[in-house]
Amino acid sequence: MKKAISLLLCLLLFSVCCFSVAATPTETDRLLAEDEYLLLDALYRAQGIASDGEYLFFGSNEFVFQCSDILKTTFAGDAVNINPDAIPFEAKMDGCFHVGGIDYHDGKIYAAIEDSGYYNPYIAVFDAESLALLSYKRLPIAVTADGQPIEQKDDVNLENGDIRMHMDGVPWVAVDHARNVFYTAEWSDADRLNVFSLDTFEFVGFVELTDENGETVTLHRCQGADVYGNVLYASCDIGAEQPFFAIDLDTGVMTHLFDRNLGDDAEAEGMCVVTTEDGVRFVSQYYAGIKVVVCTYDVSDLVNPAQDAKEPVQLNLAEKIVAFIKTVFVGLYNMLSVTLNKAA
């Protein structure tokens, strides 16, 4: 009897070991790297994140006098270029001070910009090489039942069938190059994605969000998103779990992918999808006090590669020195110029 029990236990142990080898990676297994940035480096990276496969791009909150930056770095964290005063003047006149979620497409950075009252949403476009502002446009905060845009909050009448669109801000933007559109959504309890033409920035429709049973669901506290293949992947700051979600752009079906479990003191921010030679990665960041942590997750078993991998750029010593001058001295010079112009 003892031999039989021992044999049974051995078989059970063997089966558990075999299952463990083939099991889907856990949330902890997915985390490949954490890069921590403090103080000024953290402020430069505090909001959105995007990538062209070779570089990373970051957006920030307000430093001073409505100055928020767009920063370009290598994957190793070395700064390459910065636009320390990225918010368009017209948007500043509307009270905008915040560069939120960003996205890369076709040599350009698309940035969501909003004000403290969340009634003046803008999308600004920057050259990905120089980070110079190329164009921008204010988005509607609602549309009528027949799809006509409404820009002023006093003109919105929900009782007459107007549909709110950005009355809770525009925290992120995600470009869908295959459909030649970009998506936005309200920050809290959004039951649809807003769809705009990439050419004209005009509103073209909604993607209604449902679960797999066709029931309406909401995207809550989304801080950043990225389109990869036919799916929009979203980073949400919900509780201590801070989950990632996936939205099928054909059907609007939203599914939960996995939780980061960052804790109550962390605020999950933006995200982007990056293809590497070793698989597909989610790169996201979270903000906690005086630091920002950029995290890389292995999602190769969840995401099918949709593009060729690019080799991350590495800077030599001379290039690092030039980049340091750009990020520090150019940034301070531009902020001083803004201060003097306001005082004049």
Q: In words, what does this structure look like?
A:
The chain contains 5 helices and 23 strands. It is of the alpha+beta class and 344 residues long. The strands form 6 sheets. A 4-stranded antiparallel β-sheet has the order 1-23-22-21. It has a 4-stranded antiparallel β-sheet with strand order 2-3-4-5. A hairpin with a 5-residue loop joins β4 and β5. The longest helix is centred in the last third of the chain and has 27 residues, at 317-343. Mean pLDDT is 86; it is low at 1-23.
What topology emerges from the helices and strands here?
Blueprint: H1 2-22, H2 27-30, E1 31-38, H3 39-44, E2 49-51, E3 56-59, E4 70-73, E5 79-83, H4 89-93, E6 96-105, E7 108-115, E8 122-127, E9 133-138, E10 142-143, E11 149-150, E12 163-164, E13 174-176, E14 181-184, E15 192-197, E16 203-208, E17 222-228, E18 231-236, E19 243-248, E20 254-259, E21 267-276, E22 279-288, E23 291-298, H5 317-343
Features:
344 residues; alpha+beta; four-stranded antiparallel beta sheet; 5 helices; 18% helix
Summarize the structure in short.
The chain has 5 helices and 23 strands.
Counting DSSP E segments of at least 2 residues, the number of strands comes to 23
Structural class of the helices, strands and pairings?
A: alpha+beta
Number of helices: 5
Helix content: 10-25%
Strand content: 35-45%
